[in-house]
Design a protein that fits this description.
By secondary structure, this protein is mainly beta. About 5% of the residues lie in helices and about 65% in strands. The chain contains one helix and 13 strands, in the order E-E-E-E-E-E-H-E-E-E-E-E-E-E. It is globular.
Length: about 210
Amino acid sequence: MPEGAVACRGTWLREEGEMRFAPDRPWLPFTAEQWFRGEGIDFRWQARVRMGPWLVARVTDRFELGSGSLAAHVFGVIPVSRASGEETDQGEALRGLAELPWRPFALHESASIHWTPFGDDGLHAAYDNGKTEAAIDFRLDSDGRILRASAGARPRLDGKRFVDTPWTGEFSDYRQFGPFCVPAAAEVAWLLPEGPFPYWRGRLLDFRAIL
């Protein structure tokens, strides 16, 4: 954070990357914008995912006002995927908590986030809004930059049911965007019994504070 900065309305980023739905499925390119609330863990991710030469899905992933949801549409109107409910709330809360490096103003103790240090390079962040609880362990480098976020269990949709699965995200390539130094690259993976399954990776194209 820049010296003297204590609050902002939120942050915004634009990114590109790839995602896939199973270890044996191809990577699908996407472009996206994401908005973060200045405090707490609320976010909204809106992406265009290229599913094929002529097929683009519009995806909205969010955690707002205590609830999470995911919705995907093709041709702008035809729904192809939708998720909501208790497991989705927890999964989206974990994503919002893990992505705190992209909302540096929220990296302090608040009414809904409690911080506990552990070891020489760890921070435990626990979120509780009275309805949904989520907890993330962060690993930091010697300069205090977050390199990894992990959860012992995050609800993963397997067919038609949710399965609690270990989950991790890696942050890298810290860059200066105006007065902010934030990670310009990230990769997320499920830790399956047969091995890690990286399913999302992204690269920042732009990053700004909403003052």
